Amino acid sequence: MLNLSLQELQQHATPFYVYDINLLRQTLQQASQEAAKYNFQVHYALKANTNSPILQEMRAVGFGADCVSGNEVKCAIENGFPSHYVVFAGVGKSDAEINFALDQDIFCFNCESSHELIVLNELAEAKGKTARIALRINPNVNANTHKYITTGLEENKFGINAWELPDVLALLKTLPNLSLIGLHFHIGSQITDLSAFRNLCTRVNEFQDWFESQQIQLEHINVGGGLGVDYYSPDEQPIPDFEAYFSLFNQFLEVRPNQQVHFELGRALVAQSGTLISKVLYIKKGVSTNFAILDAGMTELIRPALYQSYHKIENISSEGAEERYDVVGPICESSDCFGKAVVLPETNRGDLIAIRTAGAYGEVMASSYNLREKAAVVYLG
Ligand code: LLP
Q: Which residues does the annotation say bind pyridoxal 5'-phosphate (predicted)?
């Protein structure tokens, strides 16, 4: 059950996101300690959550920023991330976004196609600058996760495929305003089977061998993010097993002398610290189960509607006998459903419902569909 005081939560108008800052700090401490054992550098993937107080915590433990839009680069810099700890990735960077990032002298652009390299070179040349780049390579490793969040297969739009690399290197020789400093990989998100990362290490080692055979030294290898969290039991093991995760890379990745290893974690750092709190508006009879209609919906948390994702749902006000409810939102879409036949204590109008593990890809994916207001945010701890 959610480890925050009911009285405290009752003081706020619903729906709202609440963040447990103590849990966030413990999570970040563990992640940074485990990464530090091997001198690994973590860049927090801002896409998971861009709230300032959360970014401040990321900064406090020395993480850099992994950004996927000009606004994320801007947000990272405004929140105190030094520009040499900012990375800009993404398949579709606009000219304006690239120009902004060039002006900020960010650490590295993770580039995903030959065409992007040509454009970046042109824009850097116009500014009389040299852009540091990493090539995002599609390693063709199956992450065994939801098909919408797997990214490292040849059929996905992300990265440069292995067979294109000789042409890409030939192209790079003609682009004097780019400096190749690293390789970038990311195979997907919510990965709970660590063997996928082991397979990634094997592929990265092969790519490194190939680049060495081309007499190219790389300053860093970025192995992306993707470590999953336990959505089913958020209280049993709220902090992901960073020890197993980082030690796996230490064991299987063949790091070259003077080479840095970078990670881009998002979800594993912030998901468990966030909960969406909503109020029951109505109870309505259904054919097999009753509906509990909430004042939060897919506009506040779209993951269940978009990926059929599971989020644990708790009634934190009631202790009555258990019943089953379809827990739904107020939006005019049938997919606006947080869970079907969810077992809850007898639920009534006004009860507070906690939708757990919503700190990553929750608020950031909110929409104003149906002209909904943005949910409020509360930080505790
Ligand atoms: N690096 C790259 C290149 C990425 O594309 C992503 C996530 C990350 C790092 C961070 O991955 P994480 O450590 O958070 O798994 N909205 C979806 C997740 C989309 C992930 C997109 N890329 C969801 O709610 O499950």
A: 226, 264-267, 361
